[in-house]
Design a protein that fits this description.
single chain, alpha+beta, nine-stranded antiparallel beta sheet, 211 residues, DUF1990 domain-containing protein, UCP010260
Length: 211
Amino acid sequence: MRMLYLHKPSADILARFVEQQRKLDFNYSAVGATALTPPSGYTVDGTRIELGTGEEVFDAAKLALLNWQQFRLGWVDVWSAETPLEIGQVVAIMGQAVGLWWLNACRIVYTIDESGPISRFGFAYGTLPGHVESGEERFLIEWDQDTDRVTYEILAFSKPNHILTRLGYPLVRRSQKRFGRDSAASMFRAVNEAQIVPKVYQHTGLMSQAS
């Protein structure tokens, strides 16, 4: 199973990769845990940004998420960006680091579409065997109608699933942090015409292994 490329993988390579991964199970056991409590033994990362206020911003953020805008970063991309946000759908996530393109596979675990005083829209995906990490990531848009604020949040738990990510873990952690910042900025740009520099809030924690 090839996961590293000198050049960005072609659509044919990506289609074969996704089809192969579609037949496989998750490479971690705590499937769905981003909806509850992340499991022990994983590094937990969070990123949160305020996108603006009002229903128009919320709808624009939903559309951006539906179009996988949070991955359209240049050094990170998704295939296929036409993949619907439905449970069971598989996508390939590409990331460029140290001169190589790293190919990863994820399957959507659950989706969120709630209306109320706090309206929520989003989804989570989990890693498949063709991924250099093991874990889960949730992408969530919230509109708090009491304050009228719309926010975008990423919550992830992960640990290395490849010898190179174990050996180069400091670089992996920098890339994960960079992804959180760049993803938040991409979503901000998608819903705001004015080029205002957003404030991005990030946190990291290690869920200790249960004794």
